[in-house]
Design a protein that fits this description.
single chain, 614 residues, mainly beta, six-stranded antiparallel β-sheet, six-stranded mixed β-sheet, 3 helices, 49 strands, elongated
């Protein structure tokens, strides 16, 4: 009796799955798909390519953007220089030199971009770059002080600018006014009754200012009338902020009115909070010790009105702490911190992002979400990148940089991208668990050292910088097929089915010659190569090639001229008989420059034969 022909269809594709043997993954996922991303309707298609916008000297340590007076400014920390660069042909403008040649970070607050270089805090206002010592706030540290001393503490010392002002209440007879410190470095502005004066001498060693004429005593009930501004440097203060390596804008009740920074040298488990709406004021009293000194603070994620503080994981201390902020009865900000959970600690200070309102962090075990247990309402972490973790965990994750783009969380490391796709339906491995997994994707040939998602007018634009000084952007702004190349080179995009035993590992199957095809997505220009891999042929054999071109007056290639105007899907058949296989894997590949590529489905027909002997 003639064996019945069976049909196997692969469709409803999702993402990659590196978590299991290629024979065990779900038929809708791929055990090896490279440079593919879910397009409209979830169809896997070739990712957009990227192009070099310009080449500069020095590796690209960071890319920043900010708007000043309605104009978008693009900045690059390249080697030891801070540059303003342009997407046009205009030459970059050097803003500052002498920066450390290491990755940096920035925070935008109150019309200024505050850049933490790893050595100093600098500020860009849209015109110039200033050191914090130039533009930082000068606090009034003491008020109601008598000429001989005393007074009331008012504002805290600014750690990034060694200047402060003391306000005295003149007694009408004293000429010499004693500052709170001996050994001051300079006297700045001196005012009497609101008017600047130079009618005085100073003794910096003793910390005194002696007026030529004793300032008059103010009228009864009047306020301080002698203001003296002076310079006094406290060792290590400026470095505490200047060497911070991560920062976030946050504030009381979750508002964005302060900068919180961490990663400072010997103070790895401390973070520091700026003054209200001022990145140039870092009070020496506004710091917090977070957990034990053995583990460093790596970064932050905003959780509604709270701030999650992420630390390294040493297996003992909590890895996530929660900060809350409120105003006390006098209107001053008060922050409190409590440990939240342990287990999943940060591994890179650039390893943070989000999908929607779910906050994500890169750990040594993969990408985890900070979420809430549905039964206890306590904070927990849950793995979201399980399907790419076997490869992801082999990378040097301390060097990874991450960003959120177009609903996806992307980990750039080692020239590769490991992505989790928040646009695809979530998958719940267990019906009795609230934990879910995202679908994942995997890209190669993306040499990103730094990355930036520039959001402008509601549109996202993805840029990255390289080790060899290139500033690049993904071709998502290009509509035609020229978007499908990496700096002019072909993108090799691959989608593989599982190594399919067709439901019975111990029966030999034969794929018949007819009725087998790959349905590819329509593009003005596209093609595919089809390879078959069996348990007897580990490398795979190319069995078919096919082109799919659609006539378009705006894009005519006479070497591939076609009158085909049908913009529907097209099948590429592979007329190959494969005898006596236990498992068969179908690999579909496109490695042509400036061609689109996507897969709607795959169908094969086969018959079942005798039992396998081994």
């Amino acid at each position: 009796m003639k064996a019945s022909i069976r049909t196997k269809t692969y469709s409803g594709f999702r993402g990659v799955d590196f978590s299991a043997d290629p024979a065990l993954v779900d038929a809708s996922r791929s055990p090896w798909a490279v440079n593919m991303i879910a397009g409209s309707g979830g169809v896997p298609e070739k990712r957009p390519g990227w192009r070099t916008l310009r080449k500069v000297d020095g590796r690209i340590n960071a890319l920043f953007y900010a708007k000043f007076n309605g104009e978008m400014h693009l900045l690059a920390h390249a080697g030891t220089k801070l540059l303003r660069w342009y997407e046009s042909s205009a030459a970059p403008k050097e803003l500052k030199s002498g920066l450390p040649d290491e990755r940096s970070t920035a925070a935008y607050l109150n019309g200024k971009l505050w850049i933490f270089t790893g050595a100093e805090l600098i500020c860009y206002d849209g015109e110039k770059v200033y050191g914090a010592e130039e533009c930082g706030y000068i606090p009034t540290t003491v008020i109601a002080r008598d000429p001989a001393g005393g007074g009331t503490a008012y504002e805290a010392i600014n750690m990034v600018r060694p200047w402060q002002t003391v306000r005295f209440l003149a007694d009408g007879t004293s000429k010499t006014y004693q500052l709170p410190y001996e050994g001051v470095e300079a006297i700045g502005e001196v005012k009497v009754n609101g008017t600047a004066t130079t009618a005085y001498t100073s003794n910096l060693d003793k910390g005194t200012v002696t007026f030529t004429t004793a300032p008059a005593k103010p009228a009864a009930g009047a306020e301080d009338n002698v203001y003296i501004t002076f310079k006094k440097t406290f060792e290590g203060y400026a470095e505490r902020i200047g060497t911070c390596k991560n920062a976030v804008v946050w504030g009381v009740n979750g508002l964005s009115d302060r900068i919180v920074a961490c990663g400072s040298g010997e103070y790895q488990n401390r973070d520091f909070t700026s003054g209200f709406d001022d990145g140039g004021y870092w009070p020496d009293t506004k710091y917090a010790v977070v957990g034990t000194a053995e583990t460093a603070i790596v970064g932050y994620r905003r959780l509604g009105e709270h701030l999650a503080i992420i630390k390294e994981d040493n297996g003992q201390d909590s890895t996530v702490f929660i900060r809350t902020g409120n105003l006390d009865a006098e209107g001053d900000a008060v922050f409190s911190i409590h440990p939240c959970l342990g287990g999943a600690g940060g591994v890179s200070r650039f390893g943070f992002g989000n999908i929607g309102d779910e906050q994500l962090l890169l750990t040594s075990g993969g990408v985890y979400a900070i979420t809430t247990n549905s039964f206890t309402a306590e904070r927990v972490t849950q793995n979201r990148s399980f399907r790419v973790d076997p490869l992801l965990r082999k990378e040097n994750l301390s060097e990874a940089v991450c960003c959120t783009y177009d609903g996806c969380f992307m980990v750039f490391v080692g020239g590769k991208v490991y992505g989790i796709d928040g646009r695809m339906p979530k998958n719940y491995p267990s019906r009795n668990d609230t934990a879910f997994l995202y679908e994942c994707f995997y890209w190669e040939n993306v040499p990103a050292r730094s990355v930036m998602n520039r959001i402008d007018g509601g549109r996202e634009h993805l840029f990255f910088g390289t080790e060899d000084g290139r500033i690049c952007r993904f071709n998502t702004d290009i509509e035609d097929l020229s978007r499908y190349n990496d700096d002019g080179a072909a993108i090799t995009a691959v989608w593989s089915t599982k190594a399919d035993d067709d439901g019975d590992a111990m029966r030999l199957k034969t794929m018949i010659k007819r009725g087998n095809a790959v349905t590819i997505q329509p593009y003005t220009r596209s093609s595919a190569k089809i390879l078959l891999r069996t348990d007897k042929d580990a490398l795979g054999v190319e069995v078919a090639q096919g082109k799919m071109d659609i006539f378009n007056w705006e894009d005519i290639d006479f070497s591939r001229f076609t009158f085909n105007a049908n913009d529907g899907p097209m099948e590429i058949p592979f007329l190959r008989k494969v005898k006596n296989y236990k498992r068969l894997q179908i690999i579909v590949k496109n490695d042509a420059v400036n061609e689109g590529f996507g897969i709607y489905g795959i169908v094969k027909h086969f018959v079942v034969g005798s039992y396998a002997k081994k």
